[in-house]
Amino acid sequence: MSLNFFRPYWISLSLEVRKLLTYRVNLLVEFVGEVLSYSVVSYFLWRAVYETTGQAMLGGYTFHQMMAYSVLVPMIYKIVMGPAMHFLSEDVYTGSLSRYLVYPVNYFGIKLSTNLATSFLGCAQTLFFLGVMTLIPALNLGQTVSLSNLLLGLITAILVSPLYFVLECSIEMAAFWAEGVWSLSVMLKLILAILGGGMIPLSFFPEKIQPILEHLPFALMASFPIRTAMGRVDLSEWLYSMLLVLGWTLLALAVQAQIWKRGLKGYSGVGM
Amino acid sequence: MLLRYVRLYICFVRFSVSKSLEFRIDFFFSILMDLLFYALNLYFYYLILKQTPHLGGWTREQVYVFVSAFLLSDAIMMTVLQRNLWYLPLLVNRGDLDYYLIRPVSSLFFLSLREIAVNSSINLVMSLAIMGWALHGYVQSCDHSFVALVLRIPLFFLLVLLGTFLMYSVRLLFLLPVFWTQSGRGFDMVHWSFMKLAERPDGIYRGWFRWVLLTIFPFAVANSIPARALFDRNPLWPTLNVLGCCALFSFLSFLLWRKCLRIYSSASS
To answer: Which residues of A touch B206 (CB under 8 A)?
Structure first.
């Protein structure tokens, strides 16, 4: 496999980066709005909880660690999820999937590379924005998140993002048979929010189900990269979790390939 | 006059039902999605309340009443208004707003209520059931007299409806700048970011920030203050808070709508 094989994907990625940078203000407003609102709500909520209980640590997190966790959630989400939503179903409904099928490139490769463009920009935004947020004394982020751990967390988020992409694709392929599947994508996000540890760390769940949740793909896509960025994952756990990510990705890919094959058989290419 | 609007709304409902039944799988998935959303919110508060007996000065039962108010308000918005409001920026940009303006009815009425999300109406029933469960739990634990409860529960319900109308007015204020900016995405993102503030009890917010959320940006009013009218000794202030915000923001949104129509220049806008 020569380097030329990757050329179209690389071009697609760089084109997407340029496209996203054209709408810089949108990109910034979206990111800052999401992170700020989530952080502000989390700050007040957790402050109320910690003050009422009078305990320094809840679910293994001090208040400042909880704040770091909450600030990282929307940032890591942005990297892991990218813009991947409705693209496949839209292509099926409008019939524009047909043109991708005649291109001498892999459809999913092209879409993944455009997805990664958002992930890479999300990393840059995270680094910049977290840098700014370390200046807020109430959050005390400088004490809870080190640069090396943050970088490892961001790399982890990039590495797990294909898993989300494959899951999203598999779900959206329902568009081959059903007329409206956007709610399935929202359901995936909702499940990720609660079972992945996006709304609340998994250590708050009943102890019996925590080990199960940690092995599911949802925690691997949310809680795992966040905890890595906070330096709460050691090397052996990181390697084990990455193996799990690989396993889930391969499994999801196998399922996706089957659905894709069947979906294409019934695909008429005229759009709805 | 009023009867004419009622008849028109019945037509909207009939049209929406037949349209949604054409997309049966989407209909089913949307119901599932909303159920998941309710379960997720309830479980989130369950996990939080396992750690602390109070949240923002409210007991467990009171917090669940607040959550039920939030879910009911969300269900009403999703069923009656949200789908129509999503289309508004598109209508302005494409010039399709013309078709709404030439009808012999209020353009804002027509725009805001034309399509009903029938699948969400099933979830409306679910959210009412959750509210019933939450109110039952609260009634068991509170020290209000029977007469007070009989008066306060309908007041609470009425204020939730008014709070939903307030959220509609606020949403309009965030959507209408599309007449000037062409793209409504930025304002829409800001609106949804602010909406996260409405999903938590107002008691967790402090100082000037809380004051802002109860007056200038009344995101904490819609769900929390109706609940306060049920819990507080004196329900007068919470009631006035909701009524005042409702009157002010509906007036502002109506004023802005009229200004928008004056500058609207069809497809070229």
So the answer is: 44
